[in-house]
Structures are given as C-alpha cells and as structure tokens.
Design brief:
Blueprint lengths: L1 E6 L9 H15 L3 E6 L5 H4 L4 E6 H7 L10 H9 L3 H13 L4 E5 L14 E7 L2 H7 L11 H14 L6 E4 L2 H11 L4 E3 L17 E8 L5 H21 L4 E6 L4 H10 L2 E4 L5 H5 L1 E6 L9 H8 L4 E3 L16 E2 L3 H12 L2 H18 L2 H16 L20
Parallel strand pairs: 1-2, 1-4, 2-3, 4-5, 5-6, 6-7, 8-9, 8-11, 9-10, 11-12, 12-13
Helix pairs in contact: 1-15, 3-5, 6-7, 9-10, 9-13, 12-14
C-alpha cells in the first residue's frame, strides 16, 4: 500500500507521544514493504527522520503556494473549526494534490488540529491517527471537588463537537486502547476504529548493565502535560512524604521536557531531583531502582511504561497507568491503589533485589511479545484492507494476535 502521513511537525527530540508513534508507525509500515511518504508544515530536522525509508518528503507550504482557489471545501461547523485552528484553504488543497501525486491508498493525519486537512482527499482512504480520544482525555482530568479542573468540561464538549463535525471525512481512526475505541465510536460517531496499541523499540530501550542507586525511583514525561502533572502532584504530596518518613535516604528523580511552574515548585518543596529537557533519558532511568507511574488521569497507553519495561526496570503503576494493556496472569509490574499501598510496595521493592530483577525480566519479555511496532502496523493495514475488501479481510490477517477484537 501507499501511505501519505500528514503532520504539522515531526519534532526532535521526540518529546511527545504523537512524535513517537508517528515515527515508529511510518518506520514499521516501510519495513513491512509499504510505500510511505510524509508531508509537514515545515521541513523536519534530519535527526527527526533518521532511519525512515520515505518515498517522498514534502512540506505542504510549498504546494499551498501554488494551489489554486476554488469552491469552499468545508461548510458549517467544519469551516468554523478550520478557521479556529488557523488552517488555510490552500493548505487543504495542497494535501489533496500531494495525495494524488503519491497515488496514496491511505492519507493518515496525525494530531488534533489536522482533520480539516482531509477536506480535499478524494481517492485515498482517510485515516485519523488519533491514538487517544480527546473527549475521554479531558473528562478524565476533571475532579468534582477541585474547581480548577472544571475547565476541562467545556474543553471536552468542544473536542466532542469537533470530532463529530468531521466524522464523515474519516474513513478509519487509529487508537491505542479499547476504551479509546468505545469513546471514539460512541461520542464522535466514527464507525470504523482500529485499536493498534503502541509498540516500543526494544533495541533502543534495552537493559543497561549498571548498578542502580539505592532507595531511588524515577518518573519521566512531558512536564507540561496535565496527566503527568496530576500524577506528580498526587504522588509528591500524598505518597512521597510518607516514604521519606520511613526511608529518609529516598530519592525521587523526575525528568522531562518543559516543566511548568507547578512542577518546579513541587520539586523545590518536596526535595525532588528535577532535570529538564534531557534529549536521552536511558542512562538516568537505568540508575534508578524503581520506575513509578502514579497516574490519576489521562487515556491511551503510556509510552513511558513500555520504555521502562523494555529496559527491564521494575515498575509500580496505578490502574490508570495500565490503560489499554493486556497483562498476563503473572503481572510483570506492581499495581498500587491507595497511598498506603504505594508506600508499602515501594519500600518492599527497594528491599528485595531478586524480586526487582524478576519483574524487570518479565516486563521486557512481555513487551517483546505484545508491543512491537510491526504488530501495530499489521493491525492498521488489516483495518484498511477490511474497508477495501470487507468479505475477505478476516482471512488475510497474517498475525493471529491482530484479530483479538482489535479491528472493527
């Protein structure tokens, strides 16, 4: 198949989930023998596209400057959202022209603001690589007793209206969990939604043969992303002081891009070691005994969990951190709920090296078995084949795991 991926920017370092899953999905599709092209608003850096086998690499700005005006492509709410996101009509026409030039079988738009760009795509299947469903994401951040979170309710309403307005332009949507799939179908009205769980590069995120510092734990991620901030606030204020009472030498290390004032203030108040904007976290992760993922909100699959598992690190996570995951009966990580359970589980793991090693080994084997990018790409292709040839698609699935209620 021929794919044209459309994304406003492909950033380096890959600090956001959208940059991670776009890069690796393109790479996996190309490695499977499909032709992959990319168009962005501005040229990406060579580091951002290193390792990609791209048939074409365009910017839509160049094509837009040559695009001719014509009848409006969008109307009503679609047109209002186009204006809201600042997308020009000529950008939409440019994407349509590039889809024709590449003879694309599928045009895949990535991000939140990109749905209007599907307006001039005529012959190719139109795919929204949403990953997480936005209404569910916003509602997960709401706390009834915290007025500061109530602003997410109107945000959820706007995102829901936006998704619903463009539903007829979307032939298929790609998400990472069954919960996101249900929300996309029920709230946005998008019929064909494929669950392609995130993978992880197990060679890049491999175990490091270094001794971890005693009584240390680590958390990382974008530090301007509210689910990450809520996780740190909850853990820092409710769990960490109790841990320090029991183990004064304990150290919490936090790494990530663009820490907000809230994160900086929290680290100063609680003695958390904060390092911002490190391009490569692997050595830092390896030097910590335990990975903590105390998520209280957010949807989708946590890339940091897959990365930690691939590095064979022992993990303690909340149930929310395990969204979208299919875990074996012998769980490769510890799931903690209450504040007391978090304290006891963390102290117990620090004191038990054989258990830490066993959990890390099991976690790495689990992601190797279940979370490869080649598997995600196979599921995505199977969904597109289902749209083209509904009767025969099921028999064409090459990988048995792809049929586990993931395509629909």
């Amino acid at each position: 198949m021929r794919f044209l991926f459309v994304k406003s920017a492909l950033a380096w370092p890959r600090g956001s989930g959208h940059d991670v899953h776009t890069y690796h999905m393109m790479r996996a599709l190309a490695e499977a023998g499909h032709e992959v092209s990319l168009t962005t608003a501005e040229p990406p850096s060579e580091q951002a596209v290193a390792g990609l086998m791209l048939a074409n690499r365009w910017t839509w700005g160049e094509a837009a400057s040559r695009a001719e005006n014509g009848q409006p492509l969008l109307r009503g709410l679609q047109e209002r959202f186009r204006s809201y996101w600042g997308i020009e009509e000529r950008d939409i026409r440019a994407i349509g022209k590039q889809a024709e030039q590449s003879s694309a079988d599928a045009v895949v738009v990535v991000g939140l603001e990109v749905l209007p760009l599907l307006g001039a795509v005529r012959k190719a299947q139109r795919v929204w690589y949403a990953a997480d469903e936005w209404v569910w994401h916003h509602l997960s951040l709401v706390r009834l007793l915290d007025r500061g979170t109530w602003a997410h309710v109107p945000s959820a309403a706007v995102k829901g209206l936006y998704e619903f307005a463009f539903r007829k332009l979307i032939d298929r949507a790609w998400v990472v969990s069954q919960a996101d799939r249900r929300a996309m179908r029920w709230l946005a009205g998008i019929r064909h939604v494929d669950v392609a769980p995130n993978g992880v590069d197990t060679e890049h995120y491999r175990p490091h043969d270094v001794a971890a510092d005693e009584h240390s734990c680590v958390f990382w991620g974008r530090l301007d992303f509210e689910p990450n901030i809520q996780a740190l606030e909850w853990f820092g204020r409710r769990v960490w002081p109790r841990v320090r009472e029991r183990q004064p030498a304990a150290e919490l290390r936090v790494f990530g891009f663009q820490p907000t004032a809230v994160v900086q203030r929290l680290s100063q108040q609680l003695g958390i070691r904060l390092k911002a904007n490190l391009p490569d976290l692997r050595a830092e992760i390896a030097q910590s005994q335990v990975v903590v993922l105390p998520f209280q909100s957010g949807g989708g699959i946590k890339n940091k969990l897959l990365e930690a598992a691939s590095m064979a690190r022992p993990i303690i996570g909340s149930r929310r951190a395990c969204n979208g995951l299919v875990l074996p009966a012998e769980r490769p990580l510890v799931i903690a709920g209450s504040e007391r359970q978090w304290v006891s589980e963390l102290l117990a793991l620090w004191a038990d090296q054989p258990r830490r090693e066993a959990l890390g080994k099991a976690a790495r084997q689990w992601v190797i078995d279940r979370h490869s990018w080649s598997r995600a790409a196979a599921i995505a292709v199977a969904g597109l084949a289902q749209s083209q040839h509904p009767a025969s698609a099921a028999s064409n699935l090459q990988e048995p795991a792809a049929s586990e209620a993931l395509v629909g």
